[in-house]
Design goal:
The chain is of the alpha/beta class. It is built from nine helices and ten strands. The strands form two sheets. A six-stranded mixed sheet has the order 6-7-8-3-9-10, with helices on both faces. The chain has a four-stranded antiparallel sheet with strand order 2-1-4-5, covered by helices on one side. Helix 5 packs parallel to helix 7.
């Protein structure tokens, strides 16, 4: 089973463009003087694109991540997710959008240590509203896709870093999100595991998944179809 089988038909994926659109989005924090963490920014990510945002510590990556993940709100501008404006949306609806439209992959994995691999992915189907009758099949299919079908009954504490991240990717895609948002996805991995996870991202992109990877690593950034650099809260495309 491919990621398109999890996401829907190619026509449905195409109909969602643009998946992410920032229109003069800015984030300012109060202070004396105010801190401009993100200057007015335009960014468009269409369905099926693989985009990386690369920048050093303190460049505004975390601010951008929080805005893209609906964990924070801009002070100016408009963020459209899957074509839908997010300004003025209440916290309950924002949480629902995070659960159903955004797949998160973090540096620290954030797997529940005393739950099995399968249970970790199944929990994501519960929170995202997948019908009960479909949950196990969807979870197993997602784990098969990332090469973790042989570890269903293992707990994360006995897995390698690469296996934990693959489990996290399965958890992220099982709800058929509009975009996979990855924050330093190889930050806790050795070189071999990093290459394995990046190869998985390549495969998922080839199958039609929309990916947006935020990283400080130029080598990780270079795997993307499009590259954007952030510095001092300003974004620019890399040719």
């Amino acid at each position: 089973m491919t990621v398109l089988d999890l996401l829907g038909s190619p026509e449905q994926v195409q109909d969602r463009a643009p998946v992410v659109e920032l229109r003069a989005v800015a984030r300012q924090f109060s202070g004396d003087p105010p801190v401009h963490a993100l200057h007015p920014t335009d960014l468009r990510v269409d369905a099926g694109e693989y985009v990386s945002v690369v920048g050093p510590s303190g460049s505004g990556k975390s601010t951008l991540l929080h805005l893209l993940g609906l964990l924070d709100s801009p002070t100016d501008g408009e963020y459209l997710l899957d074509g839908r404006p997010t300004s003025g949306v209440g916290e309950r609806e924002r949480a629902a959008l995070r659960a159903t439209r955004i797949g998160f992959v973090f540096q620290a994995f954030h797997l529940l240590p005393h739950r099995t691999v399968l249970e970790n992915v199944l929990l994501a189907t519960v929170y995202s509203g997948v019908p009960r009758a479909e949950r196990r099949d969807r979870a197993v299919a997602a784990l098969e896709r990332v090469g973790m079908a042989h570890r269903l009954d293992f707990v994360p504490t006995v897995l390698s870093g690469g296996e934990r991240q693959r489990t996290a990717v399965a958890r992220a895609v099982v709800a058929r999100p509009a975009v996979l948002l990855a924050d330093e996805p190889t930050g806790n991995l050795d070189s071999e595991s990093s290459q394995s996870v990046l190869a998985l991202f390549d495969e998922l992109h080839a199958e039609g998944l929309t990916l947006l990877v935020i990283t400080h690593d130029d080598d990780v950034s270079a795997r993307a179809q499009r590259r954007v650099r952030i510095a001092d809260g300003r974004l620019r495309e890399i040719a």
